[in-house]
């Protein structure tokens, strides 16, 4: 089952969004923040809106008959390869194609953003030395971001420690990443305004490619 909303009673006429979780919550994030769904709602949600969660990595997706009831969808990050052969990834890709056909708002974060090359007619909005496509848009209804606007410094430090414990990152790289975190504060408010404005159709797009310091995780 999917579509959990924390027990809220849906009110007619209010905006409704869905978060498609593509990874399981870590014990730390679940205990400290209540899970990534609450992290995303805390970043993107506004009072009076309905937010629901589907655990896409476990095969949960909204029914197509219910899609028109949503104003937008957020695709989260994942440890998986966006181009992998897992059945849930194939199902998610098919679902996203159906959303695209309906011109539904889609915000893709990291895993939810990845393409080997941007789709035809897509526009690169930002790039960095590390990542050739930090952000792109497709029409006015799809926005992909390679970085993680939902991550706080605390979450990032915990993630680096987890990667170290699992030998998925070298100590020197983890220490360099932590030093970078201490040296500068990511402008989360700017990313927040961008993502919220996109989901609600309040952005005025500027036809410019912007170089960024990479927001991607190691």
UniProtKB/TrEMBL annotation:
Lineage top rank: taxon: Eukaryota
GO cellular component assignments: cytosol
Gene3D superfamilies: 3.40.50.880
Transmembrane intervals: none
Name the record gives this protein: Homoserine O-succinyltransferase
